[in-house]
Design a protein that fits this description.
43% of the residues lie in helices and 16% in strands. The protein contains 34 helices and 22 strands. The strands form four sheets. A seven-stranded mixed sheet has the order 1-2-3-7-4-6-5, sandwiched between helices. The chain has a six-stranded mixed sheet with strand order 12-13-17-14-16-15, with helices on both faces. It is globular.
């Protein structure tokens, strides 16, 4: 349930970052309101405060702040409560208490005794997150008055009536410890924690929100309850409702549910620790098992509300972006590092700007570190260019604009700005980016990127220290007073996501060249458009021994064309407010694009250029190979990666060279090293074309013009070779129970599964799907989650999955879990006991009814997301299906009885044929037990 917030544009896979956060809310009563808001009749006890760009703030007499962001174009709604409390507020012996309470507040309250079950029944996508400055809880659900009332009542009740029981603490403490241990498996994450610890002498930002095991294991329940009653109160919270709802109805519900909660008589303790100015370089060194190396460096900087925050974000981009950044050019291009990245944390108090590099095991860590420091601290002596600043500005403003087009994302993003003092800081930060001057970026580089303000290197005595004085946050009341913001984003239509309406609104077109497309026009917030395309190519014989070349070829597409370099492509997509990505596999490639109506023609033309005119630069290809090798090396001792790879290889035993063969991590590294740029280029030339492709476009566009454009871009792009689908073959898999040793890893991984002779049109398929949902697929409310997480406290994350091909009679049921190595036998036994109980007794009538409601609402929620809808339309084109298939499938789900479900389980799930793979440091556990 914990979320670690990260901003890492340049490296998508390395760090789980420890988040940033929140504190006191600013009193802005009396700020000017739009006439329609000021004149609107309000429930008793609710007062209007201010309104900015479609978001209106109200306040209750008990101190609760309420933000409403209606968006009728969404088919979903989000309820999000932000509490101004995180690890910054924890005292000695209390580390991790806010995060622990985040977990316990899912255990039930007076009026909602089984929260996981309710979350499942309402088809919601929920979570809770804890950071340094705030905690939040949210649910996104299909928009309806019933669901909205449920979510508001739930949050009001658990605000002050959560059980916080000793029995729940005993079980959840081990789950949180298991989550902590999962982070300890990552040497890079541990290195980041050590850097933050070394960077602060006194401030609590030195302590990660997840806490330390000794505090988690020993905190008295009385102390935890006192912390809960102190901070989880209406005068320390902001309730936000975003999406499709009626504001008047929402305010009435808020008044009824939250209004009776009394304002506390206690006074919230203020945090007042100010970190002294750093007076010299600091060092942190981690020595743990692993292969790849990493170097990080952090610099103190002002809090997120400070006027310098926008310039610092741009500076972080100028240094850390890929491929335009200074660090990329200084480290990655000359192969001193495999990847670079930057994190510009925005927090309530002064925080850190962090830069990092991932270095292969054969490269020099010292050389990379020195180049890194020279590049970062030397930037103040160089001329940061207007082009660099404009590139960063374009990227950030694009991301903000696209975020503002999604009320759901705005609703969740605002938690972080609330955490910094006021939700309007989000808009002020955007405005500061727009008005930012080149001189501002140069000034902050000179002010903060100093040797004495650095955490990474050895201490060196300095006769005349040059210290960076970090300014305090400004007075927030004056900063946000009378702020009005810009124009509101245009809203879209209230779209019905039912299968019948989707089919009625979708137009299927087949172009002369063979490309098929599905066009679904709808008015969207901000006139957004989502594009998905899949191209298939080759056959079993032609693709043999070419999997690595296929993967590398797909990854080269976005790295430059005959008309644009990699950087120019990135800049052009940013200018067009477009997000584009390419995903490759051996027998095909998929392309995704999200943009706005006015940019769609140019963005699609750019996608066509990426697909049809790649340049295959030898230098870029070598950089790509280096990245892939280092990323694979990172997984060589990771329990989850090793167990998953071993399991997949065992369950799909195709011979080496077969395009369906699954390579070991070591083979992936060797194959990547052996593949030349000519191999990737030849693969592209042999197979790429649009003769066997499908695409879908969902959103606001001109149908006629778009059809003509797509035909012109892709209609004559022929595939060089014929295509024949790779058939999945069912095989009887030998049963094994195998353990893999991963030394020096605190967390272990369990995976078990069985192959099924099953297709998704099998009469048993709906019963197996719903049965899996109840056994291990729900939100904390499945049989396995209730047993291994809620009751026994053995695993932070356990779930089951069931899949079946739409083409071939082959499917799989699987279960996976993380856990402490010493609990390996208990995890396996608990899984078998629960699965055996289901096969023997089945599910109850109430359990099945609740599962039907939750599962069917989750499918409605999925169809309400344009990205997911576009992907489903593409899949349906390849299957020659319509959403009528979904309607029929859901009718079959709704008609299921408990007996039908258990009988289907008995026909297909034989526990004696279940393969089990475990990976962890079991040797150390055994040695400890012998002692």
């Amino acid at each position: 349930m914990c979320a670690f917030r990260q901003r890492c544009r340049s490296l998508v896979l390395v760090f789980l970052i420890l988040a940033s956060g929140a504190v006191s809310f600013v009193d802005v009563t009396g700020a000017p309101l739009p006439a329609q808001v000021a004149a609107a009749p309000l429930p008793s006890g609710v007062e209007p405060v201010t309104s900015v760009e479609g978001i209106t703030e109200y306040r209750l007499k008990n101190g609760l702040r309420v933000l409403l962001f209606p968006d009728q174009s969404r088919q979903t709604a989000t309820v999000n409560v932000t509490y101004m409390v995180g690890s910054r507020y924890e005292g000695y012996g209390e580390t991790g208490m806010a995060h622990l309470l985040e977990h316990l507040m899912f255990k039930g309250s007076t009026g909602h005794t089984n929260i996981p079950q309710e979350l499942t029944e309402h088809g919601s996508r929920p979570n809770g997150t804890t950071s340094f400055d705030r905690t939040n809880f949210f649910e996104t659900f299909p928009a309806s008055n019933v669901n909205l009332e449920w979510a508001i009542r739930l949050e009001a009740d658990r605000m002050v009536n959560s059980f916080i029981a000793k029995k729940d603490l005993d079980s959840e403490m081990t789950v949180v410890r298991n989550e902590y241990e999962a982070g300890e498996n990552s040497a890079t994450e541990v290195t980041l924690k050590r850097l933050q610890s070394a960077a602060y002498d006194w401030h609590n930002y030195s302590k990660p929100p997840i806490g330390t095991p000794s505090d988690l294991e020993n905190v008295p329940i009385e102390r935890l309850r006192a912390f809960y009653h102190m901070y989880y109160q209406p005068d320390n919270a902001v309730l936000l409702v975003a999406g499709r709802f009626e504001p008047a109805r929402a305010l009435e519900l808020v008044a009824v549910c939250f209004g009776p909660i009394p304002r506390p008589t206690r006074t919230l303790p203020a945090t007042y620790t100010v970190e002294p100015t750093q007076d010299g370089e600091r060092t942190a060194v981690v020595r743990r098992a692993g292969d790849s190396q990493a170097a990080l460096v952090g610099y103190h900087k002002p809090g997120g509300s400070h006027p310098d925050a926008a310039a610092l974000s741009v500076l972080s981009f100028v240094l850390g972006d890929t491929p335009s950044g200074r660090l990329y050019k200084a480290l990655v291009e000359p192969k001193k590092a495999a990847a670079v990245y930057s994190f510009d944390f925005e927090r309530h108090d002064p925080g850190l700007m962090i830069f990092g590099a991932l270095i292969g095991k054969g490269a020099s860590l010292d050389a990379a570190r020195e180049t890194m420091l020279t590049t970062i601290e030397g930037i103040a002596g160089t001329q940061i260019s207007a082009e660099e600043v404009e590139r960063a500005r374009a990227y950030f403003l694009k991301e903000i604009d696209l975020t503002l087009n999604s009320s759901e994302q705005v609703g969740l993003r605002l938690s972080d700005w609330i955490a910094m003092g006021d939700w309007r800081l989000f808009f002020i930060h955007r405005d500061n980016l727009k008005s930012l001057k080149l001189s501002d970026v140069r000034r902050v580089a000179a002010s903060y990127l100093k040797q004495s303000n650095r955490t990474v290197a050895l201490f060196i005595p300095t006769e005349k220290p040059d210290r960076a004085e970090i300014p305090l946050s400004p007075d927030l009341a004056s900063l946000v007073k009378d702020y009005k913001g810009g124009a509101e984003v245009a809203t879209g239509e209230a779209f019905d996501p039912s299968p019948a309406n989707i089919d009625a609104q979708t137009r299927i077109v087949e172009l002369p060249g063979g490309l098929r497309m599905a066009l679904l026009h709808k008015k969207t917030r901000g006139s957004t458009v989502v594009f998905r395309m899949t191209l298939s190519f080759g056959d079993e014989k032609a693709l043999a021994d070419r999997s690595t070349a296929a993967w590398l070829a797909s990854q080269m597409l976005m790295r430059g064309t005959r008309k644009h370099t990699r950087q120019q492509l990135q800049d052009e997509f940013d200018r067009l407010k477009a997000r584009a990505a390419v995903f490759g596999r051996t027998s095909g490639v998929s392309i995704s694009l999200e943009t706005v109506r006015e940019s769609l023609p140019a963005a699609l033309s750019l996608v066509a250029e990426v697909l049809q005119e790649p340049v295959f630069s030898a230098a870029d290809f070598d950089q790509l190979k280096n990245e892939q090798i280092v990323f694979a090396e990172l997984q060589l001792k990771d329990p989850q990666a090793l167990a998953s790879s071993y399991f997949s290889r065992h369950m799909s035993p195709y011979p080496k060279g077969d395009p369906r063969y699954i390579s070991t991590l070591e083979e992936q590294i060797a194959e990547t090293r052996a593949t030349a740029v000519e191999d990737a280029k030849k693969f592209y030339g042999d197979f790429y074309g649009a003769s066997n492709g499908q695409l879908a476009i969902v959103g606001d566009f001109d149908d006629v013009a778009l059809e003509k454009l797509v035909d012109g871009l892709f209609g004559s792009w022929k595939s060089p070779r014929p295509y024949s689908r790779l058939v999945a073959v069912y095989q009887d898999i030998p049963v094994i129970n195998h353990s893999l040793e991963t030394p020096d890893k605190a967390n272990a991984f369990f995976i078990a599964g069985i192959r099924l002779k099953l297709r998704d049109d099998d009469p048993d398929y709906p019963a197996l799907v719903l049965g899996n949902y109840m056994l291990g697929g729900g939100v904390l409310n499945s049989r396995l989650a209730r047993r291994l997480r809620q009751k026994d406290g053995l695993s932070y994350g356990i779930r089951s999955s069931l899949n079946a091909s739409s083409f071939d009679s082959i499917g799989q049921f699987a279960v996976n879990a993380i856990y402490a190595p010493q609990n390996a036998a208990r995890v396996e036994a608990a899984f078998k006991e629960e699965a055996t109980r289901v096969l023997k007794d089945g599910f109850t009538l109430d359990e099945v009814a609740a599962a039907k409601s939750g599962y069917l609402q989750s499918r409605l929620l999925s169809r309400s997301q344009d990205q997911e809808l576009a992907s489903r339309l593409v899949s349906n084109l390849s299957l020659h299906r319509a959403f009528a298939w979904d309607a029929d499938f859901e009718l079959r789900i709704a008609a299921l009885t408990p007996l039908q479900i258990v009988e289907a389980f008995r026909r297909h799930l034989d526990l004696s044929r279940m393969t089990i793979i475990k990976a962890g440091d079991f040797a150390r556990t055994l040695a400890s037990e012998k002692q």
